Inverse folding.
């Protein structure tokens, strides 16, 4: 096997990528419902209406923070999780609803390589047995031919004859991942989901495994869905990249175009976090505040609205970004409290006509808007909302803030905007708004000057 550069350069010996998709995902949705009959909790929306293709011979990189739904999406495509809605097509055939025989054929055409080679191999089996297991399960050819196939596979992934009878604990991390790849290739698949296949490995070992995956793709014409949080690796290996946030793909396009000119604020935040000169983002680092929302309770508008540094603001009020974020945070507290059932003490207080606002909400009001320099008209709206919260009407309090101070981003789920073989789900792609880069640069400059930032005509 040839050893090329570490995974920092875009590879130039591209496998021919067909225009035909091998896999087409359409509006795929995977929700997890509580198993308890008594639970009134909404489901966890792990994958929430995702559509994209992986073409024959293509590598699509799937990136996003931990918990955004990447692995669930990969597992649902392979049939390892049941979709709640939507379809997975392979060469036009629906593979989401197969009988047993068809399911076996789909399993044969696909495979998965897992993140942690320490965890994914059975320590009590020899490497030969591990790689042969899928061949045995599918009763592939004769036992002798299976053994021969295993030896060929070990050689193909850079291992050798003597490794056949060894156990996983006798291997390094990189060698164990080679075993995992050999096993995934056993049934001559056409499509692999590679779930963070190099994240647990040293950088030098990562490069060798990436090169191996590229060589195998070239030799065997494989299609890959490459799941990763390391964007440098994705830049090296992926033809196209899909950026995922809170169960949604928010941007997708040819890798170099997305890296050179990201159009979704979340993509910008990921690119700006790449350390040093490897980052393609030339602007300031974008640090997101807070954590992603609970996927049981995603925002009703844009999924990124609670953390977006480029969020569209209402045009009527002259506030700086800190004040807007404080108001967003207060509204978020009210929304969260509105989902919690009132305690017995709260109910008793309400019956007695006493205020039910608890210490958490009182502290939230003080923390977020207590000292904020708000114009009188904005302060009056906040006071009305706080008064509703004092009466235990948290939903009404959140709605009061949203009605006057909310954003279009809180209310409307953005559609995909397509151009230049790319798509991004952000209202800022529409005419009349500044684009994401311009907005972020302006807001950063405004914050540095300590002046309001959002009085730009139609833009917010
Ligand atoms: S729609 Fe609004 S909140 Fe969502 S990414 Fe675009 S600017 Fe940000």
């Amino acid at each position: 096997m040839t050893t090329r550069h570490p995974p920092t350069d875009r590879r130039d010996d591209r496998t021919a990528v067909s225009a035909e998709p091998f896999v087409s995902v359409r509006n795929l949705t995977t929700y997890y419902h509580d198993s308890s009959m008594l639970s009134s909790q909404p489901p966890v929306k792990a994958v929430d209406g995702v559509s994209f293709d992986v073409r024959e011979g293509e590598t699509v990189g799937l990136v996003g923070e931990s918990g955004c739904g990447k692995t669930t999406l990969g597992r649902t495509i392979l049939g390892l999780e049941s979709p709640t809605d939507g379809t997975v097509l392979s060469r036009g055939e629906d593979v989401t609803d197969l009988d047993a025989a068809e399911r076996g054929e789909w399993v044969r055409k696909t495979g998965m390589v897992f993140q942690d080679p320490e965890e994914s191999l059975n320590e009590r089996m020899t490497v030969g047995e591990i790689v042969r297991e899928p061949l045995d399960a599918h009763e592939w050819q004769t036992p002798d031919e299976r053994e021969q196939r295993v030896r060929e596979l070990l050689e193909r992934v850079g291992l050798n004859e003597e490794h056949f009878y060894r156990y996983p604990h006798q291997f390094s991390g990189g060698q164990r991942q080679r075993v995992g790849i050999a096993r995934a290739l056993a049934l001559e698949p056409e499509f692999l989901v590679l779930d963070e296949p190099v994240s647990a490995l040293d950088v030098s070992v990562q490069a060798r495994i990436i090169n191996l995956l590229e060589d195998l793709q070239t030799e065997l014409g494989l299609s890959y869905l490459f799941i990763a949080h390391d964007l440098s690796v994705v830049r090296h290996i992926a033809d196209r990249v899909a950026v995922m946030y809170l169960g949604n793909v928010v941007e997708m396009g040819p890798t170099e175009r997305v890296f050179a000119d990201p159009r979704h604020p979340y993509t910008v935040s990921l690119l700006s976090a790449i350390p040093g000169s490897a980052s393609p983002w030339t602007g300031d680092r974008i640090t997101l505040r807070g954590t992603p929302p609970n996927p049981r309770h995603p925002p009703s508008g844009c999924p990124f609205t609670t953390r977006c540094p480029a969020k569209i603001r209402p045009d009527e009020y002259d506030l700086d970004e800190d004040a807007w974020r404080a108001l967003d945070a207060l509204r978020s507290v009210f929304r969260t409290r509105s989902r919690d059932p009132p305690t017995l003490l709260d109910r008793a207080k309400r019956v007695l006509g006493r205020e039910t606002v608890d210490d958490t909400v009182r502290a939230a009001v003080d923390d977020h808007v207590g000292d904020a320099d708000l114009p009188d008209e904005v302060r009056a709206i906040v006071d009305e909302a706080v008064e509703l919260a004092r009466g235990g009407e948290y939903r009404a309090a959140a709605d009061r803030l949203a009605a006057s101070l909310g954003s279009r981003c809180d209310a409307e789920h953005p559609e995909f905007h397509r151009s230049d073989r790319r798509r991004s789900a952000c209202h800022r792609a529409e005419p009349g708004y500044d684009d994401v880069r311009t907005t972020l640069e302006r807001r950063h400059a405004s914050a540095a000057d300590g002046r309001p930032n959002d009085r730009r005509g139609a833009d917010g």
In short: DSSP finds 16 helices and twelve strands in the chain. Residues 264-265, 302, 304-305, 308, 310-312, 409, 414, 426-428 surround iron/sulfur cluster (CB under 6 Å). The chain has two domains: 21-260, 321-406. Residues 1-13, 454-460 have pLDDT under 50 and may be disordered.
